[in-house]
Amino acid sequence: MAGALVLTPVLLVAEIWHTSQLHPIRHHPAAAVAGLVVVLIALAAVAWAFDRRPWLFPLAAVLALPFRVPIESGGQTANLLVPLYFVVAAGAVAFVARRLRAGAEEAEPPPRGALEWILLGFVVLYAVQAAYSADFTKALEQVVFFYVPFALLYAQLLAVRWDRELALRSLGVLVALALVFSVVGFFEYATRTVFLNPDVIASNQFQSYFRVNSLFFDPNIFGRFLALVMLALVAVMLWSPRRRTVGYAGAAVAVLFAGLVLTLSQSSLGALLVGLVVLAALRWDPRRTFAAVGAIALVALVVVLAFPGTVDLKLSSHRSLNKASSGRVELIKGGLRLFAHRPVAGWGPGSFAKEYRRHERTSSQRAADASHTIPVTIAAEQGIVGLLVYLALLLAAFRRLLPGARGDPVRAAIAAGFAALVFHTLLYAAFLEDPLSWTLLGVGSAFALGRAGAREPAGRAVPAKPQPSPA
């Protein structure tokens, strides 16, 4: 924790040192030192608050989750979660201080189940494979900006003593944020004004439809956030015995759904449906749930086959499928060709965009980030080795989240949210690059392990010590 806390900012500053954002710092070192002192003081103050009131950390982390700040890096502008980095850093300081104060013998050991080892293996493998990547800068950004900070976030969330009250408080923060973001989306739609993303602004000018992104850079990320919050609210509705609670939650869901519709994010709507299916299976009979879903899917397939013009989709037409998926079919095919060329170790983390443009002989910026299908991106960049770790991660995650979720609305909401997020990554991108993934896994693990079942090995209960006989 301490090593990552020190080394990550050093790598980050070294990476962005020559960017325009740091121009004032380079030319005014005295002011930069003064600013650094102010930041360190603020960091120490927040860390002290987290140390005195550990429950403040998860609330602050949840509050900071959506907010991104544009920063230039590697010649491109990345939208980074700077407020979340600050919260994670303050939490790490408090975490280290508590461990040092407790001492090695008294400090509670962290859990080291299969999920924790696989998460660690994924991050280490990514960093090692970056050595031969065609785009080392991109790989470095992924590790420094996402994987390491979010791994610290996971560890800290796992160490929190969670209960249902704290989970409801965290949900309250998320709902408040989602409602505010939805209102901003309504304003964008009413005024035909979009913030932050010039690509979305240009697209809205030349298309017959209008998409909103609220304070998020990407409408799909905005839609993903709304879908996950809605699933948590639906879990409250399904398990709550109080009509007033169900009514309030239902009203919030209606507002958020309206905001989701305005994003026109097909992947987010699909993720919402997947999450609802998981919630239904956990709340009622899973066999009947999946039978009903299968019947609905069959009817939908019949409609598409019988009346393709009605839904503007022809399954036999490559061009129609590519258009319906916003060009993802071509990206997936290109990614699979990259995988076929180097199936074992791949082309290196972060190299998908560069290698795709080189092999497909295109300058298209549609491959600017990835294939928009996480398994394909991992297969092309990290080969079979990375793909196996990814599949093992999914298996370990669902084995951690699903057992015991049927009788607990908090765990059911987390399991459904994670399933929805995984589905979303199959149609969009950003799996472990999204702090929501680590947050769901961290909180879900804390509940699954009993939290402080976080003190017992994953998947096994620690037997109680025998008590001495009164005699």
Question: How would you describe this protein?
Answer:
This protein is mainly α. It has 20 helices and two strands. The chain has helices at 2-16, 23-27, 29-52, 56-64, 82-102, 114-129, 136-159, 164-191, 198-206, 219-239, 243-263, 266-283, 286-306, 308-311, 318-324, 328-341, 352-360, 374-401, 409-427, 435-448; strands at 69-73, 76-80. The protein has a two-stranded antiparallel ribbon. A hairpin with a 2-residue loop joins strand 1 (69-73) and strand 2 (76-80). The longest helix has 28 residues, at 164-191. The protein is globular, with a radius of gyration of 23 Å. Residues 452-471 have low confidence and may be disordered.
What spatial form do the alpha-carbon principal axes imply? globular
Quickly count the helices.
Answer: 20
> Which percent bin holds the helix content?
55-70%
Gyration radius (Cα, Å) is 23 Å
- SSE pattern: HHHHEEHHHHHHHHHHHHHHHH
Output the structural class. Answer: mainly alpha
Mean pLDDT: 84
The spatial strand order of the largest sheet comes to 1-2
Count every beta strand, where a strand is a DSSP E run of 2 or more residues: 2
Terminal-residue CA separation: 47 Å
Strand content: under 5%
| Low-confidence sequence ranges | 452-471
* Biggest sheet record: 2 strands, antiparallel
